[in-house]
Amino acid sequence: MYNLEQLRMFVETAHLGSFSACARKLGKVQSAVSQGIANLEIDLDSRLFDRRTRKPSLTPAGERLLSYAQAILLQMDELDSAVKAMGRQEETLIRLAVDNALLLPNLYIVLSRFESQFPATDIEVVSTTSFDVLEALENDQADIGLTFVEFDFNREVELGYIGSLIFYPVCHPDHPLAQFSEITAGDLLPHRQIMSRSLKGSMPTQLPKMSSKAWYCNSYTAMQLLAEQGVGWCYLPDYLVEQAIQAENLKKMKFSFDHKPWKLSIELVRQKNKALGPALTWLHDELKELLDE
């Protein structure tokens, strides 16, 4: 019966183009590689290489079986990685809950590095509102999260300030409010505001209601798309609307009462008194620097 060593010889020879190169890479003598592949051909009842030329080439059978051999070796490597991860007591799953306004480009870079660092650990990413993130942590439905500061939220989670995010008031260029050179609080009253609201009806304390009419979403992307349709005006993260403003799908509004852009404070949150394994510790440390320049 064929073994993993023979499969590795087969794959490396196909990749490197010679038995001698395969032998050098695997630290074996060439005769051992040649014999190993010959034994594999006997076990598979198929000739894998055409040896009539100076450089061995795959036969049709070899070409067909190569991908299967590669898949077996890949699965074996993943099994080895999982076993080693268990030995290091790495978590099998980490649940990350994020306010959907905080799905920053840097977050995906961090997650990509996490995948390289902890290939045996699965990640579950849930995007929702800050209130729902905090509730998920309380209810043991998430291990770590990113939220905006909610001053009236005093519950059993550990909080840590990591920076702030600029929000701009925007509307469609043809919206009535877009015609104002400067907008007062009174000007906003008759025009619909599009707002973020959690599944249970909680709204961000840092972005209050300023209009008499409102539509509610639990997604800032949905808010942006509605604003681009002229449904109303809203506050949106700067990174999310920069391209839309440049493309003139949205217009930045100038408020008489906003002397500087609104900056919303962001916190890294996790379950209180819960031990952190190696993978969660790494992710926690990386997310602390998410907003660093």
Describe the structure.
The two termini are 57 Å apart. Strand 1 and strand 2 (57-58) form a beta hairpin. The protein is built from 10 helices and 11 strands. The chain folds into 3 domains: 4-87, Orthogonal Bundle (Arc Repressor Mutant, subunit A); 93-162 and 266-287, Periplasmic binding protein-like II (D-Maltodextrin-Binding Protein, domain 2); 164-260, D-Maltodextrin-Binding Protein, domain 2 (3-Layer(aba) Sandwich), CATH 3.40.190.290. The protein is elongated, with a radius of gyration of 29 Å. 40% of the residues lie in helices and 21% in strands. Helix 1 (4-16) packs across helix 2 (19-26), helix 1 packs across helix 4 (60-87) and helix 5 runs antiparallel to helix 10 (278-287). The strands form 3 sheets. Strands 3, 4, 5, 6, 9, 10 and 11 form a 7-stranded mixed sheet that branches. The chain has helices at residues 4-16, 19-26, 30-44, 60-87, 105-117, 130-138, 185-188, 220-228, 238-246, 278-287, and strands at residues 49-50, 57-58, 93-99, 122-128, 144-148, 157-171, 193-196, 214-217, 234-237, 251-252, 262-271. The protein has 293 residues and is of the alpha/beta class.
Order of helices and strands: HHHEEHEHEHEEHEEHEHEEH
Number of strand segments: 11
Extract low-pLDDT stretches.
Answer: none
The share of residues in helices is 40-55%
Gross morphology: elongated
Amino-to-carboxy terminus distance: 57 Å
- CATH class of the largest domain, named Alpha Beta
* Helix segment tally: 10
Rg, rounded, reads: 29 Å
**Average pLDDT taken over every residue:** 88
Structural class: alpha/beta
- CATH topology descriptor of the largest domain: D-Maltodextrin-Binding Protein, domain 2
Oligomer: single chain
CATH architecture of the largest domain: 3-Layer(aba) Sandwich
Strand content: 15-25%
Main pleated sheet: 7 strands, mixed
